[in-house]
């Protein structure tokens, strides 16, 4: 094994002692046990591994060194818990943690051989199986070491970047030393990204280090030439953050030709070379056309001029990245976001899935093989995005403003690239999503998308899909981000005009089941233009 003749995998349980048992289980996956250690009864034996004794000696040496460091860090964990207990806030902290894990899709974290999980599709030891609720009923001194670690370290992770930080430890071991290493690495990377020298972060208590990482993260988002993004592994649920060299403003240098042509021909707007100014002119012209159509005898195939403009942006992103299909989703009617008071959540809380829409379009040639299934595939993807929009909508309001029974996730804030997304996710399986890109808006290097006094993130986007390989690269991620900048300016123009009463803004129509089943995308002017462009040799 591993190119060594002295490391062997064996299957005969009657062999001599000193072998490493290998087991598997539904909850823990593959596990290795110490020589002659009796595996837990919940596991299924797979094999035994013979390792040279000198290798086992080195493993013991490394383990002893790690345990000494972990024990030192554990003193701080225990001190934090005792502090919460003495001030009467331990129960509140547990309730808060139980709420936080519900704001992210999947938690699947190991502490030793203990599994701390929350998933609608898989195991849920934290809330459904009652692990956190049980801790609330028991004195602190009866808690297991794994529970003590998870409760404190999960709070530190949240402080460093909300619930999405949990996902960076999916499928791996969470320990006090591991968390400190993780936070120090983030601290160093963020300091480098903004050109600042770190000041002895290694001596900081874990909670303070986590808070400083969060503050540095915000500075990176606002002013660094490096952009935060995440890589998502659909097989393991892990979502790791990285920094990409992508200087601000991250807008296109010029309007993409498909969008510019649509503006010249259908909106009578000639580009000036100032991209956001041009997009604002296009959005204004489209809104005025829709207002005119609303008083006339036509509605531009239901999706309106705003829908046509958005479709031109989406289709441009699809072709620029050689994607099979792509989409952008948001709320149909901006006036539905109005609360009972400025910044209030009442309007958002009345929304249903049907109050959102998704403009999901195929590449003009790459989906030919799906034939008559194309409409159904796109509609399934669109429905999933409409549900996601509903799910994300309350995510930037204060927790006390959202009813306990209204489930929601924190909306995505940074771009991501995902691989093998079709292995666990039912919606991705149905829509054949193997490789994908998500570029959410409002982008974190810009102010939130503010409507009726409330700032939203993750309320519109550009999403791209490849049903087969190759996987996406940073080049395609950059293209998605640039196109999301256009979507961002589109929605800001509409919101500003609506709130200032300077622009009539009607709800976005179309993009419903009938639209997809009737191949509504073929009636889009941008689709016709893109198809004609591909038909021209050279």
From TrEMBL:
Top-level taxon in the UniProt lineage: Bacteria
Name this polypeptide is given: Uncharacterized protein
Source organism of the structure: Streptomyces alfalfae
């Amino acid at each position: 094994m591993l190119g060594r003749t002295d490391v062997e995998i064996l299957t005969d349980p009657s062999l001599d002692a000193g072998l490493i048992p290998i087991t598997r289980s539904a909850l823990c996956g593959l596990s290795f046990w110490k020589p002659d250690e009796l595996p837990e009864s919940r596991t299924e034996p797979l094999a035994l591994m013979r390792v040279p004794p000198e290798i086992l000696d080195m493993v013991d040496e490394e383990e002893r060194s790690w345990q000494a460091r972990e024990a030192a860090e554990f003193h701080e964990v225990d001190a934090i818990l005792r502090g919460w207990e003495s001030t009467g806030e331990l129960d509140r902290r547990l309730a808060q943690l139980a709420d936080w894990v519900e704001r992210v899709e999947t938690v699947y974290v190991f502490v030793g051989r203990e599994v701390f999980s929350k998933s609608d599709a898989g195991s849920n030891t934290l809330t459904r199986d009652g692990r956190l609720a049980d801790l609330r009923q028991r004195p602190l001194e009866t808690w297991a070491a794994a529970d003590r670690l998870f409760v404190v370290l999960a709070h530190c992770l949240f402080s460093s970047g909300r619930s999405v930080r949990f996902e960076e430890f999916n499928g791996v071991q969470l320990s006090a030393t591991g968390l400190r290493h993780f936070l120090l690495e983030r601290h160093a990377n963020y300091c480098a990204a903004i050109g600042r020298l770190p000041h002895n972060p290694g001596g900081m208590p874990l909670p303070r280090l986590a808070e400083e990482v969060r503050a540095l993260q915000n500075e990176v988002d606002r002013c660094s030439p490096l952009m935060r993004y995440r890589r998502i592994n659909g097989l393991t649920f892990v979502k790791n953050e990285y920094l990409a060299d992508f200087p601000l403003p991250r807008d296109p240098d010029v309007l993409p030709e498909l969008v510019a042509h649509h503006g010249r021909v259908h909106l009578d707007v000639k580009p000036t070379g100032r991209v956001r100014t041009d997009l604002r002119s296009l959005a204004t012209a489209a809104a005025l056309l829709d207002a005119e159509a609303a008083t006339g005898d036509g509605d531009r195939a239901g999706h309106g001029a705003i829908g046509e403009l958005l479709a031109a942006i989406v289709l441009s992103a699809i072709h620029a990245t050689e994607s099979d299909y792509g989409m952008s989703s948001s709320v149909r009617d901006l006036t539905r976001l109005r609360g009972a008071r400025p910044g209030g959540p009442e309007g958002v809380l009345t929304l249903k899935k049907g109050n959102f829409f998704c403009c999901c379009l195929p590449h003009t040639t790459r989906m030919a093989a799906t034939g008559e299934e194309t409409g159904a595939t796109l509609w399934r993807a669109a429905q999933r995005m409409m549900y996601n929009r509903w799910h994300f909508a309350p995510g930037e309001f204060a927790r006390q403003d959202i009813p306990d029974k209204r489930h929601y996730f924190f909306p995505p804030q940074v771009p991501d690239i995902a691989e093998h997304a079709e292995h666990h996710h039912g919606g991705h399986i149905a829509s054949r999503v193997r490789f994908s890109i998500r570029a959410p808006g409002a982008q974190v290097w810009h102010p939130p998308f503010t409507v009726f006094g409330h700032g939203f993130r993750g309320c519109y986007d550009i999403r791209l899909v490849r049903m087969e390989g190759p996987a996406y690269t940073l080049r395609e991620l950059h293209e998605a981000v640039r196109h999301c900048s256009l979507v961002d300016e589109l929605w800001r123009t509409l919101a500003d005009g609506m709130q200032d009463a300077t622009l009539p803004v009607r709800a976005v129509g179309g993009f419903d089941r009938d639209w997809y089943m009737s191949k509504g995308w073929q009636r889009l002017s941008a689709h016709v233009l893109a198809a004609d462009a591909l038909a021209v040799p050279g």
